[in-house]
Specification:
- The structure is a single chain.
- This protein is α+β, with helices and mostly antiparallel strands.
- It contains one helix and four strands, in the order E-E-E-H-E.
- A four-stranded mixed sheet has the order 3-2-1-4, with helices on one face.
- Strand 2 and strand 3 form a beta hairpin.
- The longest helix has 11 residues.
- It is globular and about 30 Å long.
- The mean pLDDT is 91.
């Protein structure tokens, strides 16, 4: 089963949503903007995501 991860990035936190190939939400949560925390959340909820995307706002740089 394919998993996809969406990240909504802000200065202090990141909202994360993991969905399957049918669009069903498998996990949703928020973590600090620390890369290790983000990676930990993703690996907890999806061993090998097909794709990870992030919103493209002013913080996407």
């Amino acid at each position: 089963m394919l998993h996809y991860v969406g990240l909504d990035v802000s200065v202090k936190s990141v909202s994360i949503c993991v969905v399957d190939e049918d669009g069903e939400v498998l996990a949703r949560g928020e973590t600090s903007s620390d890369p290790d925390e983000i990676a930990s959340f993703i690996s907890e909820h999806s061993a090998k995501p097909e794709r990870i995307v992030h919103e493209s706002g002013i913080l996407a740089i």
